[in-house]
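QA checklist item 7 of 12: single-chain prediction sanity check.
[x] sequence parsed
[x] length recorded as 474
[x] structure emitted
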Amino acid sequence: MSVQDVLKVIEENSIEYVDFRFVDLSGKAHHITLPATEVEEETFENGVAFDGSSIPGFRGIEESDMVMLPDTESTFIDPFTAHPTLNIMCNIHTPEGDRYDRDPRSIAQKAEEFLQTTGVGTAAFFAPESEFFIFDDVRYESGQQSSFYAVDSEEAAWNTGRKEEGGNLGFKVRQKGGYVPVAPVDTQQDIRSEICNLLADAGLRVERHHHEVATAGQGEINFRFDTLTKTADNLLKYKYIVHNTARQFGKVATFMPKPIFGDNGSGMHVHQSIFDGDTPLFYEKGSYANLSETALHYIGGILHHAPALIALTNPSTNSFKRLVPGYEAPVNLVYSKGNRSAAVRIPVAAVTPKGCRIEFRTPDSTANPYLAFAAMLLAGLDGIKNKIDPRKLGYGPLDKNIYDLSDADKAEIRSVPASLEEALDALEADYEFLLQGDVFSEEFIHNYLSFKRDEAKSVSIRVHPHEYSLYFDC
């Protein structure tokens, strides 16, 4: 879409405001809004200024001036604003016009550019399955003398005896019993359908939606794959629309990996493949799961670099509350054509040559998608470049229920890091693969490590409510 096309959309849709957006290191969107009357061709050439020192992990106050340059291919009309508003994603530049090397979106674009220089293929495609919870109520506090959280849902298993509903109507979702039940157990069909309609209006091709395994309102909506940066853009649209549609229904949505104890958490399984023009590079008929050697080496790169990769794909302390055995969590660094306890799964049902792909199941939606997708691609390309064979390194294939294996057999399987601190240590020891093509810089990695270590420390030094249960009577 050209600048003129965007200006035409503004005119034809009586747009009153244009919202210019960018993402920070954590993947959270920020915005500055201009009246549509102030948006001209020069706006797209010169960009929109903002204060980088007010964004955590960006710039110091002595060098705070930064510029958003809008990407005309990323526009969509906001479905929630009272005044017609057009939203546009932007890249971040310095006042001198250089790409800002801490801009996650620019890093994603550099990863796509690097792929084209390798001779491996022309495009990488990604499709995230980003799960979420929709609650009726959420309260939390973390202070000097008090710390708690409480969530509630009309669907929750713990509400079978609640009287406050004006007559309890039953049909609650049992613990781990929420996978695709019909109404009245599934109370959120209309919410998810409304989300799907709005996603379609925003340009996403929705493939399906359904209730997920956990009690208390867990859901999933799948949208069609696209190239790396476009998929990251789409994921931001997706989260924005899920959050705000839930709000319109008087509810609250969260992509937090483990918001409730004792049930499945929310992951972001990421399907990925590489094409050379129209030719899929991951397919080879008759091989294991119809995977080509290129695909196997890509898997080898993902699994070999997984401990470091997870610092970018699972970058929260809460991520590791989900990554524990027993809740379908993909904690085992192996690949399999059907095993959902494996970190890498190969979908085999109803798959065509062009649909042949690998699914990295470990990530969650606290990840910044621009950074996570770029890092996954670079890990996979490193595997292709160095012919990392997962079969020779003990990464599978493993088509057994890993949780049923003996302790001796389990001990032979590498697991994901047990904490954010461990993942950050792994990244600090293994980040050379991210420097390929100058996609990530060393300065970015060191800044990211410092940013995330501060975050991890802020959690580790706080008193946990469960410590009172364990130790108060000592």
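[x] summary fact logged: The longest strand covers residues 123-135.
[ ] second reviewer sign-off
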